[in-house]
Design goal:
The protein is α+β, with helices and mostly antiparallel strands.
Amino acid sequence: MGSFARCAGIAVALQLAATSAHAQNNEPVRLVWSSDAAATQACASADAVRADVSSRLGRSPFTETNPRASSLEVAVSRSRSAWTAQLVLRAGDGALRGSRRVESRAADCRSLASATALAIALMIDPELLLREPPTEPPPAE
């Protein structure tokens, strides 16, 4: 097998893997957020992370009312040495679409909240970083 064919095969395999582990770009997603006591007190709220994800995507992908929507379950916790967010994406029928683990050894939870928002945005739209970022409207004069 030639070098080009091998590279093309790898690219197709990576794209198929990415496709199976994300929500469809326009499909609504239910965010199911849980946190332990330490994370509840110190970390960003689900609403703050929703706002960060929406800002990164240039739209809100979230729904609260669609029972057939994919769900993104996020469990945030604190151990002795790290903040952790475990993300699990499920199709509307409950089938596993993908999972990610985000960890921060920072003293506070800010870096975890930002990294978690980025991971969620990429699970919803894996091509996010390939496009120009959404433009902010100019400030009103």
